[in-house]
Amino acid sequence: MSIERESSISGGCLCGEVRFRIDGEAVFQLLCYCADCRKVSGSDAYAAFVVPRDTLTLETGSPTGFSVQAKSGRTNRRNFCGTCGSRLWADLEMGFASVSGGALDDPERFQPTMVHCENDAPTWARIPDQLESLPDAD
To answer: How far apart are CA 68 and CA 35, in angstroms?
Structure first.
């Protein structure tokens, strides 16, 4: 039995095969509307809980992954459960992990404060007007 520190955030896939822990807080919590994020989320936006990569620890299982070139030109490795297909996180070239807000055990831990790539959103997308926009990285 593992003991979680109070500041730890746990998560995993739908079938329970892959489990992870985050020791620390998110540096960004945002809704991303880029084409890649929409495809991987299956919705109008992806709930991105962005943490320093070294704070994310794989506890059980072995996620399957593939690499894609983002709109920015950077490579993202997207990790998911090979059994149930749940989207878990993307390893970003900049030393961060973009954890799926839906993969967190406590959905209330995801509290978006920003939107990103909202100009790429389809006309039917729900874009919260009260959230700040994170500009595209150069």
So the answer is: 12
